[in-house]
């Protein structure tokens, strides 16, 4: 005998036809069954073995049956059996116990997910197994570490699922034995420590389904990384723990440090109400792997930030934090002189006008041309580039002309009203170009690049707030927000520099 449970005993036997070792699983059936009840049970048992045979032919991670039948012992006992392929290795529960006995830490969650990924795939395919009359949902109903065998095949660890369909056989045996009024305390249709709430209270939560195996698989994962069963005690205590909505047996509840995304996946997989639980193993496993991948990315990013100060959030150019501008944005490291974007400062003490003949500017400037007055306050460009006005080059110093201009004689129209105040006009020579197009043109060319920089800052701010609140970086699939913000900022700054130095 190599193993014993509440429902069966397993022997290592020799198959005379195959001349090879096999695992002989003998079921513990109450001895008071009538001949009719024995025949009924054996027929149900053969049906489950047939499904297991077809399932193992398609899924290599399901143990393969070789023979099914029943033994009649000299004592008259009725012993149904199934012969299975012999595997070298150990069940997952023994792996957990052995590591604890050796003083080693339990398996890490990522290692456990990698090990049990074939089990999850096999379960999902069994839940959608093609049958002669359509798709079948072949449920395990009793998944636990004792029913996952870590086989050593050609130097590799290959997990195999044991007892597929035995949960249904247990139910049939309990029903038949119940009609015979036989005590069957040791023959539960499920293992209490891994039973889903709908197995405890089917009238309240409905029938079992793929969501039942999702629950048991999640508990198996938690036990593997915890090193002990998350639900333990007498049957009443285990039933209360399984059906308590306030405290689910998740990794973080049991004291393990996992990311919020991983904890959320386990919270959903272990919900009491099966309608709000994952409805398929594939959905559960996809979300779990995605959450682990997100946690790996965040850990790698944190490691890079600790190793290199250049990678600090908020400044991709320097290790120093960026100075805050007056408007709350990012201020540039240096101010670039742009004479045609920023006006010159007004002279503090204008020199007296030279005694030169007065020039009639109206004769030289068309009436539609704008009048230019004294230099006014700094434009919005001064605030954009750090709020500092720049000195105008000497060749663009303002002209100091007469304070007034002699109007030309009028030939027609009403006489001039000399009592109305007239703003001072500035006379300019024809050789001085009067144009504001460069300023407007440069502003227009810089509008797009600056918009890119502002957009990158906004995306970075949203990512920072989302990370602080949710505990995970803002991402759309594999694309994170920072992957979008950084190229936008670089492109905007490169365009600003290119267009500034190209304007002369």
Order of helices and strands: EEEHEEEHHEEEEHHHHHHHHHHEEH
Q: How would you characterize the largest beta sheet?
A: 5 strands, antiparallel
Estimated radius of gyration = 41 Å
Compute the number of helices: 14
Shape: elongated
Task: Examine the coordinates and then state which fold CATH places here, giving the name of the CATH topology of the domain at 88-306.
Answer: Transferase(Phosphotransferase), domain 1
**Distance N to C terminus:** 93 Å
Widest β-sheet, arrangement of strands: 1-2-3-5-4
Q: Give me the CATH superfamily of the domain at 88-306.
A: Transferase(Phosphotransferase) domain 1
Short structural description:
It contains 14 helices and 12 strands. Among the domains are: 219 residues, Transferase(Phosphotransferase), domain 1; 71 residues.
Task: Walk me through the structure.
The protein is an alpha+beta fold and 504 residues long. Helix content is 40%, strand content 12%. Among the domains are: 88-306, Transferase(Phosphotransferase), domain 1; 312-323 and 443-501. The strands form 4 sheets. Strands 1-2-3-5-4 form a 5-stranded antiparallel β-sheet, with helices on one face. Strands 6-9-10 form a 3-stranded antiparallel β-sheet. A two-stranded antiparallel ribbon has the order 7-8. A hairpin with a 2-residue loop joins strand 7 and strand 8. The longest helix is centred in the C-terminal third of the chain and has 34 residues, at 437-470.
């Amino acid at each position: 005998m190599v193993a014993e449970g509440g429902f069966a005993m397993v022997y290592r036997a020799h198959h005379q036809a195959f001349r090879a070792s096999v695992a002989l699983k003998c079921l513990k059936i109450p001895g008071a069954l009538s001949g009719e009840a024995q025949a009924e049970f054996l027929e149900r048992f053969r049906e489950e073995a047939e499904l297991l045979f077809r399932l193992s032919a398609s899924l290599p991670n399901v143990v393969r049956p070789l023979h099914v039948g029943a033994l009649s012992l000299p004592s008259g006992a009725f012993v149904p059996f199934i012969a299975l392929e012999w595997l070298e290795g150990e069940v997952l529960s023994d792996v957990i116990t052995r590591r604890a006995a050796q003083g080693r830490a339990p398996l890490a969650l990522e290692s456990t997910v990698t090990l049990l990924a074939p089990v999850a795939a096999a379960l999902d395919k069994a839940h959608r197994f093609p049958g002669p009359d359509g798709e079948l949902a072949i449920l395990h109903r009793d998944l636990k570490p004792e029913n996952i065998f870590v086989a050593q095949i050609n130097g590799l660890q290959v997990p195999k699922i044991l007892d597929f369909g035995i949960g249904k056989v247990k139910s049939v045996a309990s029903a038949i034995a119940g009609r015979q009024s036989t005590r069957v305390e040791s023959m539960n249709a499920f293992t209490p420590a891994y039973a889903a709430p709908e197995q405890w209270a089917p009238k309240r939560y409905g029938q079992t389904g793929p969501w039942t195996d999702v629950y048991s698989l999640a508990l198996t994962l938690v036990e593997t990384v915890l090193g002990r069963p998350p639900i333990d005690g007498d049957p009443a205590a285990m039933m209360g723990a399984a059906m308590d909505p306030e405290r689910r047996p998740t990794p973080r509840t049991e004291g393990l440090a996992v990311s919020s995304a991983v904890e959320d996946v386990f919270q959903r997989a272990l919900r009491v109400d099966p309608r709000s639980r994952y409805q398929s193993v594939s959905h559960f496993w996809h979300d779990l792997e995605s959450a682990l991948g997100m946690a790996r990315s965040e850990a790698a990013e944190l490691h890079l930030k600790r190793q290199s100060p250049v990678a600090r959030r908020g400044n991709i150019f320097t290790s120093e934090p960026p100075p805050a501008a007056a408007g709350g944005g990012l201020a540039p490291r240096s101010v670039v002189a742009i004479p045609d974007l920023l006006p010159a400062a007004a002279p503090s003490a204008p020199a007296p006008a030279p005694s030169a003949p007065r020039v009639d500017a109206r004769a030289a400037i068309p009436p539609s041309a704008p009048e230019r007055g004294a230099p006014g306050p700094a434009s919005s460009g001064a605030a954009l580039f750090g709020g500092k006005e720049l000195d105008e080059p000497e060749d663009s110093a303002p002209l100091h002309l007469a304070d007034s201009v002699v109007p030309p004689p009028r030939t027609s129209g009403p006489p001039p009203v000399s009592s109305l105040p007239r703003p001072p006009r500035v006379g300019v020579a024809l050789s001085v170009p009067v144009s504001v197009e460069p300023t407007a043109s440069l502003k227009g060319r810089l509008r797009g690049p600056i918009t890119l920089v502002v957009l990158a800052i906004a995306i970075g701010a949203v990512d920072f707030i989302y990370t602080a609140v949710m505990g995970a970086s803002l991402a759309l699939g594999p694309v994170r927000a920072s992957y979008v913000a950084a190229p936008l900022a670089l492109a905007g700054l490169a365009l600003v520099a290119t267009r500034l130095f190209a304007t002369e």
